[in-house]
Amino acid sequence: MKGDDSEDDDEAARFSWNAFGRRATFAGLTAMLLSAPDWNVSPAAAQEALRSYSQFLDMVEQKKFTTVLFSEEGTRLTAIDIDGNQYVLEGIPNDQNLLKTLRKYKVDFSVQSPEPSPNWVRAIVTFFPWLILGSLLFFTAQMGRGGGQQGGQQSGGGGGGLLGRFGQMNAKFDMKPDTGVNFSQVAGQDEAKQELAEIVTFLKDPSQFTKMGAKIPKGVIMEGPPGTGKTLLAKAVAGEAGVPFFSTSGSQFVEVFVGIGASRVRDLFANAKRVSPCIIFIDEIDAIGRSRASGGFMPQNDEREQTLNQLLAEMDGFTGNQGVVVVAATNRADILDNALLRPGRFDRRVQVNLPDLPARRAILDVYVKGKPMADNVDLDSIAARTTGFSGASLENLMNEAAIFAARKGKELIETDDVDAALDRIMLGSEKTNRALSERVKTLTAYHEAGHALVGAFLPGYDAVQKISIIPRTGGSGGATFYLPAEERLTSGMYSVDYLQNQLAVALGGRAAEDVVYGPEHVTTGASSDLQQVTRIARSMVTQYGMNDKVGQLNVEDAMMRQGMAPFLETSEATKETVDREVRQVVSDAYAKAKQILQDNRLLLDETARRLVESEMLSGEQFSSLVAGYKAAEPNHAIKKTKSNPFAFS
């Protein structure tokens, strides 16, 4: 009986909806008919074409026309005679006396207004949007009924339908995740792995911590530069934990409809609580976790803020979320809302930094697996040369090296393939159609030799790794690579002496052009060098307190220049002092670079000559050249070249 009643109810509902559709359609057609009573289009009067403009003027002079109507664009006219007949003339010449002629023979003239659209066209334009809207409402209601039945069967009568489905979260769900990744396969992030391993242990064996009175962290947020392995670590957590795993991204919560994002957050946590203990991973959480506007001139985003508020309530609200651990990843932790980062929501902030030298070496071991490497490939050297590379960058490097080797038909990946891949990533591909004159090649060689020699003669500066004058698609005509000290990069601490030497090295290219060709023949090749010099020198004076005249003050920083922080109230005298001291710092560095090159002109000429011949010098070749020069310097063993190889006219 119950089944029969259900079928009767379905039949009645189906009949009711069909009847509603018929009535709605009938009502719409009736409204269209009543609102547009005049459906007839007035028949157009017969028109006769005039043969020429002369015929038209003759008929005007014969006083046959009473009215002349000109088209809006002035290229067509319609003349009406005394009997109401119409004559059409296409292509009116530019006759300045036409209007005078019409006035003379008392012919009325005017510009013809555009013909109105027929009534049936206006009716369609008026009612078509309403017809579409009515159809959408009708089908939405039909789908809502069907979705409601389906939702009732699957989730105990939860709301369904088209609108309900907007609020459902399409997060990837694995009851027993098999990502194929565990912590042993993640190299170079030991500290981050330790933090996340404790979360896994908490989920697997909570008694180890609860007996000490510890509570499971509700959230862990991983922050760090792009490509450092945050998503890979999340996959490792899923592979190690063995508990249900939900994965999604912040952008999947965002919709144009207000309230949809908050509904998706509720749906995600409701599903997670049903299978707890479990893990929810939200990648790029800054898409919804951005700091909320506090009024004023900042624009507000109600949808994003409602989504964030719902996330805050689910993570640590009145009801709580016992057994659900949220793991999030972002590379913009500085813009996240403070309420999201407080303990009780994201209890732990795990830093996933760029790998140091041992970590890069371990990462390379992972990414060379499955690749046939030649015996001459030194992974230790590659790790030392890739300072500042992320894990993703190292993976890309080895992949590019494999592509280079395959392109040449090799069986093994060799050192020159890795070198070519590294150059391509940092500078771009080699220009295949490069046709440089000997003069331009020599100029570039002197420029790059200037950078290298200044660095070589400054104590404590980074060693030269490679010098190249091969033009690249990235816009570089040449480049000098250095091996920065790992300790300096890791600590981020730079001395005054090192920064002053860095300025001199950056100005070494311009100084070499000045020494060899004269100040009137320097080129724009140093434009990027000058940008770097300006930035470093200004930071030394305004941010780092490395100038006696300005003192230990931070009168300007990057946040101020970007408008994200107020400028300090400084006097005009202070601003003038800053400008004067920045110029002085740069001038001193340029004088130092120029003096080094003048004192070692023979070595400058020899380095440039070898670069022109081979287009590239390795760090070992350059070091050997410098060592030989220093040993033979008293005897001037190196042959002297022309003092000015090329004169610019």
Gist of the model:
The protein has 649 residues and is an alpha/beta fold. It has helices at 2-35, 53-61, 98-104, 119-155, 161-166, 190-204, 207-210, 230-241, 260-274, 286-289, 302-316, 338-341, 357-367, 379-385, 391-407, 415-427, 438-456, 486-491, 496-506, 508-517, 527-542, 558-561, 572-599, 601-614, 619-632, and strands at 47-49, 65-70, 76-81, 86-90, 108-111, 172-174, 219-223, 245-249, 278-283, 324-330, 348-351, 463-468, 479-483, 616-618. It has 25 helices and 14 strands.
Radius of gyration: 39 Å
CATH superfamily of the largest domain: Peptidase M41
CATH domain topology of the largest domain: Methane Monooxygenase Hydroxylase, Chain G, domain 1
In which order are the strands of the major sheet placed? 6-8-9-10-7-11
Proportion of residues in β-strands: 5-15%
Mean pLDDT: 79
Domain AAA+ ATPase: 216-356
Pfam family, one: Peptidase_M41
Protein name: AAA+ ATPase domain-containing protein
InterPro entries: AAA+_ATPase, AAA_lid_3, ATPase_AAA_core, ATPase_AAA_CS, FtsH, P-loop_NTPase, Peptidase_M41, Peptidase_M41-like
How does this model look, in words?
This protein is an alpha/beta fold and 649 residues long. The chain folds into five domains: 68 residues; 65 residues, Signal recognition particle alu RNA binding heterodimer, srp9/1 (2-Layer Sandwich); 180 residues, P-loop containing nucleotide triphosphate hydrolases (Rossmann fold, 3-Layer(aba) Sandwich), CATH 3.40.50; 70 residues, Helicase, Ruva Protein, domain 3; 198 residues, Peptidase M41 (Methane Monooxygenase Hydroxylase, Chain G, domain 1, Up-down Bundle). Helix content is 51%, strand content 10%. It has 25 helices and 14 strands. A six-stranded mixed sheet has the order 6-8-9-10-7-11. Strands 1-4-3-2-5 form a five-stranded mixed sheet, with helices on one face. A three-stranded antiparallel sheet has the order 13-12-14. α13 crosses α14, α15 packs across α16 and α17 packs across α20. The longest helix has 37 residues. The radius of gyration is 39 Å and the shape is extended. It comes from Vitrella brassicaformis (strain CCMP3155). Its main location: membrane.
